[in-house]
């Protein structure tokens, strides 16, 4: 089980993208979770970080893996926050809602960028429980930052 053994960052370095994507989704999906949805999200994060051009597996180093994980977590936290907000986004105008969503996503990316590095620094394995804890902490910090932003 990925939760028990974690995911070795070293095992991802230099691997083809499909292998990295599969290993990340296996490690991030909860036991009863939707691995296909998570794999699709990781695919999107990889495209965001790496672009769509041909990929050289030798480029996949610790920093790139961290950026992919950061983008995945940013998108996952964004989805979580949007789900928590629920229908209140519908109260915005056609232009204000996309602007607010864009600002929210950038806020989330900034929080993830600042906090993810220290959480992963010196760790050779990434445990699923660490990811869940990081997401919860990030959501709390994003809400606090967003509320300050709105004042």
Concise description?
The chain is mainly alpha-helical and 151 residues long. It has 6 helices and 2 strands, in the order H-E-H-H-H-H-E-H.
Q: Give the structural class.
A: mainly alpha
**Outline:** globular
Residues in helix, %: 55-70%
Number of helices: 6
Mean pLDDT: 77
Tell me the number of strands: 2
Q: Helix-strand pattern, N to C? A: HEHHHHEH
Query: Are there runs of 5+ residues with pLDDT below 50, and where?
Result: 1-5
> What is the CA–CA distance across the termini?
44 Å
Q: Beta fraction of the residues? A: under 5%
Question: Any key phrases for this structure?
Answer:
151 residues; mainly alpha; two-stranded antiparallel sheet; 69% helix; 3% strand; globular; disordered N terminus
Can you give a write-up of this model?
This protein is mainly α. The chain has a two-stranded antiparallel sheet. It is 69% helix and 3% strand. α4 crosses α6. The protein has six helices and two strands; from the N terminus they run αβααααβα. The chain has one domain. The N terminus is likely disordered.
